[in-house]
Amino acid sequence: MDRKITIPVKIKIQNEDFDVSKETKILREKQTGAIVNFVGVVRGFDERNNSLIDSMTLEHYPGMTELEIEKIVKQSCERWNITGVTVIHRVGKLLPSDQIVFVGVSAKHRQNAFDSCNFIMDWLKTKAPFWKVEENKNQKKWVNYNLSDDEATKKWVV
Amino acid sequence: MVIKYFSWIREHIGKSEEFIELPDNVKNISELINYLNNLNDNYKKVFVKKDLIKIAVNRTYCSVETKISNNDEIAFFPPVTGG
User: ∠A31-A34-A37 over CA atoms, to 5°?
Assistant: First the structure.
């Protein structure tokens, strides 16, 4: 765990939207043979309560969020042969279909990029201190955590 | 010491952070929660839901047994829901 990250890593928490093609281009380097991108999007429908949502607001714990994402990226670097990582997570008020999160991983070969991207996303969901509140008409409701997200991390435990 | 609260915990307690002077007999998180519970009912209503509360000391996840001192930054928050 004490080894330093030696590949280009970008971690950003921001209100603004992000441009996937621009971020993908940044990950394209000479040694890169594969890039896997994940984009999380605001669902306009609350599946658990069978209701529409008007908007969603995300808050986070500045300082700790970045640290937790760094830890996850570092573990990913130790586990897979990857050449670059970008994690961008938005906060503030978002509307249905808005982009929330971008995780892009580049590698020489695709399987490392797929696995690393999946790993980063699974752990981000359970460790990075973000919270969502859904707004519908004049009501707001904090989103409950999802037990299946905890389950998803189990596949990475060796 | 600074204590930060997030999400519905912040709303229940009515503030996002507060500064307190740690009493001498408060040595760990569990004792801090007892101390806060005695301040008013808002804390009690939050900390009764102990299974739904995550704790961080100096921006690192920890448990109720974690030792604390007056220079620490403590945070209480619900399980995370980002991504």
Answer: 125
